[in-house]
Structures are given as C-alpha cells and as structure tokens.
Amino acid sequence: MGYPIAMKNEKRITACTLDCPDTCSLAVSCREDGSLSFTGNPDHPFTRGFICPKTARFCERLTHPDRITQPLVREGANYWPVSWDDAFRLIAKRIDRLRSRPESILHVRGYGYRGVLADASKWFFGKLGASTTCGSPCDSAGMAAFEEDFGALAQNDIHDLGNAARIVNWGRDLSRSSVHLAAIVRNARKGGAKVLSISPGGDGNADFSDHMVRIRPGTDRFLAAALCMGLADAGVADEVADRCANFEEFRGLLAGLDLGELLGACDVAPEDYARLLRWYAADGPTATLVGWGLQRYLNGGENVRFIDAVATLSGNMGISGGGSYYGHSSGRNFIKWAARDVAPAPRALPVHDIGRAIIEADPPIEMIWVDGVNLINQLPAGDVTAEAFGRCGFVVAVEAFFTDTALRADLILPCALMAEREDVVGSSLHDWVNWSAKVLDPPGEARCDWDILAELGSRLAEPIIMPDREEALRTALDSPALHATPEELRAAGFLKASWPQVAFEGMCFAHPDGLCRLPDVLSPEPDAHAKYPCRLLTLVSRRAIHSQIPVDEDPEALEAFVSPANPCVVGLDTSVPVYAATPRGRVAVRVRFDETIHPSAVIVRRGGWMRHGRSLNPIIAPMETDRGGGTAYYSQCVRLEN
C-alpha cells in the first residue's frame, strides 16, 4: 500500500464515510512500523477528538490480507484475475446488448460508504435508464412517519439536548450506536437533566439513565397512546391543540381506548407509566430520542407517529430543550447533482423482498450491478436473493472483500475504501459537513467508483460521459444551507451548515398549513404465533457496522440473549446444540441469559456472514413496514429449540 504523501509521524485529516450518524472527522497517521492509526480530530467541533471502536479499527480493514485488489472473473466455482481492460470489455458488451431494454439492468446501491461523489453510480445507471430499488432496510418507516406528522424530517440541534430538564430515550442503545450522542446525553445528565430509557432490554442504557422501563418488543405505540390519553385527560393547552390539524379527531380516537388494555399490550407497569406521564406533564422541557429499531416492525411507522404525538401534546415541540429526535437526511445540506438530467427509473424493486422481486420481474432482470451493500447477507430471505442472483445472466459486484454477495457475482471489481478516495459527507445527527480527503492510495489495482464508471461509460457503443468531478462537487455544495465551494471546504476541512437551532420553532410545522398531523388509527398487534412465541431482534453490534467484519473475526456461533423467564427456554437443553428457529429454517446459537431482557424477545447481534451459518437473515421472512417501504425485521416470530 502506497501513500501519496509522507505520513510517518504526522497526521492527515479526512472523514468517516461509514453508515453512521456521527460522520466523524478523522486524523490518520502512519506509525514508525508502517501501520495506520485512525483517531478523532481534536479540532472538529462535533468529533472533539474521539471516535468509536468500529472506526478506530478500520485501518485493519484497509490492510487486511483477504482484501480484493484486482478484478476477478468467475469460472465455475472459482475466481480468476482479469485485467481491467478485459473486465470493462465484458461489462460493456453486456450493457450494449441490453441498451435497447435498459429496464432489464438492475442497479442496487447501498450505503456501505457514503458521500456526494459516492452517488456516481446512481447518476450513471439513471442515465442508462436501468431499474433501481425502493424502500430501505433501515429508517424509512420512521422518516415517513416524521414527514406525515410534521411535514419534514427535522430535529433540534443535537447539542440542544443540554437544555432539556428531562430526556426520554425511546429505544436507542447509547452504549453501541452513536458514541457522540452518548457523550451528549452523559453531559446533559451532569448538567442536571434526568434520563429515562425505554426498550425491550439487553442494552447498555442503564449506565446512561436514571430510570429504565422495559417494554414488549414492537408495542411502543400502545404506551405512547396511553401517555396521550393521560395528557388529554389532564388538558392539552389551547395553543398546542390549535397547532394540530386533527386534534378533535385524535381525542375521539383516544376516547375509545382503555388504559389497562394499552398497558397490558405493551407490558409496562402502571407505576412506570405514571412516572412517564409526570415527566411529560412537568414544567421544563422534555426531549424525546426516537430509536432506529422501533420502526423495524410491521407497525413501525405507527410506533414513531404515536411517540411524536406525545412530544406534541405535551407542548415539547418547537421549543429549546424539547423536540422529538429521529435524525435528518444526511444529504439535506447538498444539491442532489446525481438526480439532475436523469429521468425517473422505469421500475423500482422493493428492497425488503428483493430476491422474490428479481425472480418475478417482467421483463426479466438480465444484469445486476451492486455497489456499497452486501444485500444477500443483510436483507431477509438471503437464500432467495442468492437464488435470484444465480438466475440472472450477469452480476457485477463492486466490492473489497469476498462477501456473501460478492461470491454470487460473475465479476468482482475491487474498490477504494474510506481514506483512499476523496468525497464530501454530511451527517444525519449534526450540521457539520466534512471533507473526506484521500490520504492513501488503494492497494493493488483497486479504484474508486467514479473512475470505474468513467472508464466503463467511455467504452460503451453509445458512450455515457461522467460529469466533471469538480463541477459535481461545486453543484452539491452550492446549497441554501452551505453556499460553499470545494476550495473553501478543502481549506477548512469542515463547515457548518445553516439550520435553525430549534426545529419547528413556535410549533410552526412544515405542512403547507403550518399544522402537525396526529395519528388517525391505532393498529392492533399481530397475534403471537403458537409455535414461535418470541420476537427475533437482530440488534446493532458494538464491534462492526453490519457485515463489515473480516471472516476470521466471526465468532464460532451466534449468541442469543434471552431472559431466564423466556418461554422458549422451558425444557431447553443448553448443553447440546441450540437453534434459533422460524418457519423459514433454523440457525445454531449459543444461549446467554440476561434478566433485563423482556421474556418475549430473543436478541442476536447482527453482522455475521451467511455462508458460515452466522447470519439470521436467511430465516427472517420478507415483511414490509406500514409506511416508507421499510423492512420489518423485528416482526419475525422465533423460538429456541434443540
């Protein structure tokens, strides 16, 4: 691995482009032995000199011996090196043959690495007229809920949490997700704020909280509806009710509910409910953190909507120290250059059930290009997606490792990773825009996506010429929130976008009439499956982002964390092999007991590789959330068995 600059004993500033809200500014240095070191940039106002363990170890990923460093073509069960020239010839030949029916080409783009220039493949395949995907495996149900409620996805400046008297952490694992949000919450407590965390348990939130409330998985809307009932009974201020377009209709919905039934549905003790109600009704602002897990249920968007309703009816929206925090778009600070002069895709296949959608596509999918995502491993029914890839005539994966997805490709193109490519990144948590500088060369023949697509486009019979890279950056940065140039951002390293400190100040929301919308229905929870009584929660890991784990670091077996009171452990023999089983199959696990976990939950940390039997996604059925085209992973019923 070479370095474009002399780095030993000095630091170069870049930025993290992983799929994480913190979007840290990084200091990269080269030690005397030639190894790399990633640390937080101490001069960055948000990063403040510290980063998570996942990013701190990313240098090991860059230099890992298993990394793919040259184009590879599959012949039977094996992969063989091929020159870039031959690789481009193979791809161009296939695209030229399909050019008259470009909808038969499917482009799948994920966020394994993010940035303004990382959208190059969106532009390229958009110009080609290829099919694309819709929905998401992550936060789209919650995003759709916020837009439905308030007209836009927005939140107070994250540091405004320091002005809260109380913080209700509704579902975020502060010990494993955003290290900077955890630090902000910790500092708010030091400043006098009280913190109450709500979750099915099994997290590290006790260290960040004054009170813990355990809830049945997926039933957050019932607790939130109960709180709305209590707030309505106590009397909602006229100035709050007047800012709700459908307040009377919502009050009618609440009138038909029974408090005991709501608390029974979510399995929350009356004393915990009473404490929460006091928190939201008390003087002084209460801020609400909305987690990125409670939307991964069939009624996930509804869960978020009722939590938003609690924040609204309690008078905590549009004020400093209050607000409902879900995040904002990491791209909101940029002009979407990749969408310019690009016609809408002829069709979009749903992400949550992508394998079946490919198999059933008419006209059929004859070529797949996938970049930035290990979708066979990370999406439900990965076995079906693997079958779909096998049926497709030609699959190209832009990848750095032999992931479960790459191993179903006919051609693997080695790509540059973070710190090996130049880009600009925004955050879904804070308002700083960071320059992600190239500080080292990619190994071997690996190339950045932009260069790959530029070369490929020039080789087509009808060439697709990539825009000027600098002009794309200039366009993206000339947004109302920035009005910056690439030169200014490169010189500074980071710039702060201009957004209000308080979102929806004065309860003036982003709908055309300025009013918010309260939920109009409370959906019942699906009945428990007689043979599979628990919910399978594949939660965030502390050690890696999703499946970005070298295969040699995977544990021997997945660990399943359950309560000793879980009905699945009755008669279970943990001295012999144990399996997590669903109607789609079963995967070996090692049982670990944790009394903090709700008895109806089985918790497994995500990230293991499917081909080694360490991913549960193959046994998760494709299910779609109630809005936003999200993936309802956590509505999967499961049991433990020998």
Automatic annotation (TrEMBL):
GO molecular function, one term: metal ion binding
Keywords from the UniProt entry: Iron, Iron-sulfur, Metal-binding
UniProt key word DNA-binding: no
Record-linked PROSITE patterns: 4FE4S_MOW_BIS_MGD (PS51669)
Domain of life: Bacteria
UniProt entry tagged with the keyword Hydrolase: no
Alphabetized InterPro entries for the sequence: Asp_de-COase-like_dom_sf, Mopterin_OxRdtase, Mopterin_OxRdtase_4Fe-4S_dom, Prok_Mopterin_Oxidored
Record-annotated 4Fe-4S Mo/W bis-MGD-type domain positions: 9-66
Pfam families: Molybdop_Fe4S4, Molybdopterin
PANTHER family, A to Z: OXIDOREDUCTASE YYAE-RELATED, TRIMETHYLAMINE-N-OXIDE REDUCTASE
Designated name of the protein: Anaerobic selenocysteine-containing dehydrogenase
Organism whose genome encodes this protein: Desulfobaculum xiamenense
